[in-house]
């Protein structure tokens, strides 16, 4: 049995005993520098898509057409209530809040921290993100507590014939 | 055998700048400040050839490995 342990099947089999010096496999200075150059390349390549989209946005900045979308009827939303909808795309979830008899606000409700859905908490008069307790003011969409730094994108609204419509997404002031 | 760690230091510095720029780029993108985003992209792109140049310059600095 002890025999088997020390038995090397072939003379030529040098796949596992091919380290000639101590620490040969350690990352040396050159290898480390190579890794760092690779990292720089990775950063460069990964910033390309952001650049492309940013350039596209810059060129077509002025005109962005949104098709109007009916959210709910006036009667269905009581003061202090909120309605979930999606705007402009079907995956851009959004939140409509009726603050008073005449005042409505709507925001895209993906948290500006890590995109968890934000919900309206009537008792606290705030929008709350369940993930890391981010809080947003319902009146402005600005973050008031927690990790988020950027206000929620506001959705422009229009009330017509007893219905509430979403008409566009407001840009941040540049 | 004497080593030169200047290259390592400079490349680490570039990595640090890369990280900061990229974070700033993404945030500026979501803030819709697209000009700032583009500036960051340009910086990131520019840093790669710089890193490569430093690497090429520094790789043979210091003592040769097998020299006595
Ligand atoms: S995702 Fe909303 S606070 Fe982190």
UniProtKB/TrEMBL annotation, chain A:
<protein>
    <submittedName>
        <fullName>Rieske (2Fe-2S) protein</fullName>
    </submittedName>
</protein>
<feature type="domain" description="Rieske">
    <location>
        <begin position="74"/>
        <end position="166"/>
    </location>
</feature>
<dbReference type="InterPro" id="IPR006311">
    <property type="entry name" value="TAT_signal"/>
</dbReference>
<keyword id="KW-0411">Iron-sulfur</keyword>
<keyword id="KW-0408">Iron</keyword>
<dbReference type="InterPro" id="IPR036922">
    <property type="entry name" value="Rieske_2Fe-2S_sf"/>
</dbReference>
<keyword id="KW-1133">Transmembrane helix</keyword>
<feature type="transmembrane region" description="Helical">
    <location>
        <begin position="31"/>
        <end position="50"/>
    </location>
</feature>
<keyword id="KW-0472">Membrane</keyword>
<dbReference type="InterPro" id="IPR017941">
    <property type="entry name" value="Rieske_2Fe-2S"/>
</dbReference>
<dbReference type="Pfam" id="PF00355">
    <property type="entry name" value="Rieske"/>
</dbReference>
<keyword id="KW-0812">Transmembrane</keyword>
<keyword id="KW-1015">Disulfide bond</keyword>
<dbReference type="InterPro" id="IPR014349">
    <property type="entry name" value="Rieske_Fe-S_prot"/>
</dbReference>
<keyword id="KW-0001">2Fe-2S</keyword>
<keyword id="KW-0479">Metal-binding</keyword>
From TrEMBL, chain B:
<keyword id="KW-1133">Transmembrane helix</keyword>
<protein>
    <submittedName>
        <fullName>Uncharacterized protein</fullName>
    </submittedName>
</protein>
<feature type="transmembrane region" description="Helical">
    <location>
        <begin position="34"/>
        <end position="55"/>
    </location>
</feature>
<keyword id="KW-0472">Membrane</keyword>
<keyword id="KW-0812">Transmembrane</keyword>
């Amino acid at each position: 049995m002890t025999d088997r342990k020390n038995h090397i099947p072939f003379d030529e089999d040098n796949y596992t005993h091919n380290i000639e010096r101590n620490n040969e496999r350690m990352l040396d200075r050159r290898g480390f520098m190579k890794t760092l150059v690779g990292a720089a390349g990775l950063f460069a390549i990964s910033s390309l898509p952001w650049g492309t989209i940013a350039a596209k946005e810059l060129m077509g900045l002025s005109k962005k057409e949104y098709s109007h979308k009916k959210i709910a009827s006036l009667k269905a939303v009581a003061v202090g209530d909120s309605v979930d909808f999606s705007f402009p795309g079907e995956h851009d979830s959004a939140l409509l809040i009726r603050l008073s008899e005449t005042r409505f606000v709507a925001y895209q409700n993906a948290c500006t921290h890590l995109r968890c859905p934000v919900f309206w908490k009537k008792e606290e008069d705030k929008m709350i993100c369940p993930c890391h307790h981010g809080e947003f003011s319902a009146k402005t969409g600005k973050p008031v507590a927690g990790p988020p730094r950027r206000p929620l994108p506001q959705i422009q609204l229009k009330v017509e014939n007893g219905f509430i419509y979403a008409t566009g997404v407001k840009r941040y002031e540049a | 055998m004497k080593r030169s760690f200047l290259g390592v230091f400079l490349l680490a510095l570039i990595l640090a700048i890369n990280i900061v720029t990229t974070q700033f780029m993404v945030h500026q993108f979501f803030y819709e400040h697209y000009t700032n985003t583009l500036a960051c992209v340009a910086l990131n792109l520019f840093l790669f050839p710089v890193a490569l140049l430093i690497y090429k310059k520094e790789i043979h600095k210091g003592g040769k490995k097998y020299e006595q």
